[in-house]
Amino acid sequence: MERLRALAAVADHGSIAQAARTLHMTASGVSQQLAKLEREAGHRLLEPQGRSVRLTHAGRVLAGHADRLLAQLATAQSDLADLGDEVLGPLRIGGVGSAVRTLLPDALADLTGDHPRLTPTVVDGEAVDLVPQLLNGELDLLLIESWANRPVSVPEGVTLRTLVSEDVYVALSERHPLSDRETVDLADLTGTAWACCPPGTAPHEALVQALRTRGVEPDIRYLLAEHLTQLSLVARNLTASLVPAMSRRPAPPGVRFLATRPALRRDIRAAWLTRAQSPPVRACVAAIEAHRQDRGDIRPDEGEPPETGSRTAG
């Protein structure tokens, strides 16, 4: 089925490179899948077309069957998930650290108390690493971040639901010359050293874009995955950091949080495969939504419907 999925993606997008991006695979990985499919089918499925490829007649015939088979498989998976509403079995969750720390504990405590046959597991990480694990079936539910100035991108077939929308602050040491302000213009932070998550992650890209938009070339000296570790350096006046509302606590003494100009926001979104929305996934999202109202420093989504199959959502 994975080889047929690769063929269908090439048929839809017209190139191996675009198919690879859609499937979150490398181009060489897609090429290997298609080469094996050709051997199994006993027909040549692709032929060169300039610097790209096109489907042969046999390729078009098989791609038509692939579309129907993949649609039937998605229907079968949905039917199995809907056989009953009993919340049991494994629930494999991946999420960014701040969302795992803030949103999951109460929700999981309720779920496991109400459904003792449910077995949740949790890993933390960034969307760039977690989305491929969702797509290949290693994870069932993600809690990923989407910055307003750097929206998260997901492939078709993934449903997104906004759980939390929150302000983002600049964290400065109380010894920093601008720390007495309530709001700081990012343009005023020229020459400031920054702590941030590693390159490729949403927080890193959002910081770089926010500063460059204000004419500031980022001086990122500390690449640290955890906000609390970043704040320990901020407290010693070594660096500044962009910190979403839910990550402000616990903060070490000596740290001030200033609103930004222009304002920055971050969403936490639940993500799951549309075709694999199981009762445990639905129950977990509902439990998180039930508890989010108890927090006063973050604004919940106000009735936003799920987004399905959007490549970029922000």
From TrEMBL:
Signal peptide: none annotated. SUPFAM superfamilies: Periplasmic binding protein-like II, Winged helix' DNA-binding domain. Transmembrane segments: none annotated. The keyword Cytoplasm does not apply. The keyword Transcription applies. Keywords: DNA-binding, Transcription, Transcription regulation. Residues 1-56 form the HTH lysR-type domain. Residues 292-314 are annotated as: Disordered. InterPro entries: LysR_HTH_N (IPR000847), LysR_subst-bd (IPR005119), WH-like_DNA-bd_sf (IPR036388), WH_DNA-bd_sf (IPR036390). Residues 292-302 have a biased composition (Basic and acidic residues). Pfam families: HTH_1, LysR_substrate. PANTHER family: LYSR SUBSTRATE-BINDING, TRANSCRIPTIONAL DUAL REGULATOR HCAR-RELATED. Belongs to the LysR transcriptional regulatory family. This is LysR family transcriptional regulator. It comes from Streptomyces decoyicus.
